Amino acid sequence: MSQQILEFFAAVRAGGDVQADELPEALKSFASQLPWLRDHGQQDPAANLAKVKCPVLILQGERDIQVLADKDPPLLVAALENAGNDDHELIVFPELDHLFKKTTGPKSTGLDYLKRRPVDSGFLDRMVAWLAPRTGAVAGVGVGVGVDSRD
Q1: Quick one: what percent of the chain has pLDDT higher than 70?
Q2: Which of 119, 140, 144, 151 is most buried (most C-beta within 10 Å)?
Q3: Residue 133: is its pLDDT beyond 80?
Q4: How far apart are CA 143 and CA 136, in angstroms?
Q5: Helices H, strands E: what count in the chain?
Q6: Whole-angstrom Cα distance, residue 138 to residue 135?
Q7: Dihedrals phi, psi of 145, to nearest 5 degrees
Q8: Would you tell me how many other CB atoms lie within 10 Å of the CB of residue 147?
Q9: Helix or strand or coil: residue 76?
Q10: For the segment 77-103, what is each residue's pLDDT rounded down to a tens digit?
Q11: If we measure between CA atoms, which residue out of 54, 73, 77, 74 comes closest to residue 131?
Q12: Distance (Å, rounded) from C-alpha 59 to C-alpha 89?
């Protein structure tokens, strides 16, 4: 199944023809999102970031199978630096996937996406700690208490 998930996202990124009725049951929920997935896959994040002049926080799950932690974030950092944006930070979370949720096992297969799991409280704490001094908010208030992206 994990190979099918990887092939599905590769086909979408490449603009390939994906037949919703031929997808495994676990992937059929993505069928209604195909137009968005295709459009999103054709965006150039580096070009978009070159236009950004405000502080940027790049958060990355190391076990993300959609955005590769060893490949993609360094490109984003380089784009910001090349554009002269010095107020940026990259934080990689070793046990987290694309949804900033802990994965089971040493590597995410994508099947974890189908399980109800909370957003990692350490991720939320780090994000709030970065945002708080930039927004005047108080860090640590109500963070990490049973947050689930489907709630």
Answers
A1: 89
A2: 119
A3: yes
A4: 16
A5: 5, 2
A6: 9
A7: -105, 90
A8: 16
A9: helix
A10: 999 999 999 999 999 999 999 999 999
A11: 54
A12: 8
Could you give the CA distance from residue 17 to residue 54 in angstroms, rounded to a whole number? 38
Alpha-carbon gap, residue 40 to 13, rounded angstroms = 8
Cα angle at 126 between 121 and 132, to 5 degrees? 120
Amino acid at 31: A
Nearest to 97 by CA among 28, 16, 5, 4: 5
Q: Amino acid letter at 50?
A: A
Per-residue confidence band for 140, with pLDDT thresholds at 50, 70 and 90: low
C-alpha span between 128 and 86 (Å, rounded): 20
110, 115, 116, 119: CA torsion to nearest 10: -20
The whole-chain average pLDDT of the chain stands at 84
How many angstroms separate the CA atoms of 70 and 63, rounded? 10
pLDDT tier at 131, thresholds 50, 70, 90: very high
Per-residue pLDDT of 104-114, as tens digits, reads 877 777 788 88
Residue type, 48: N
Token representation of residue 109? 């297969």
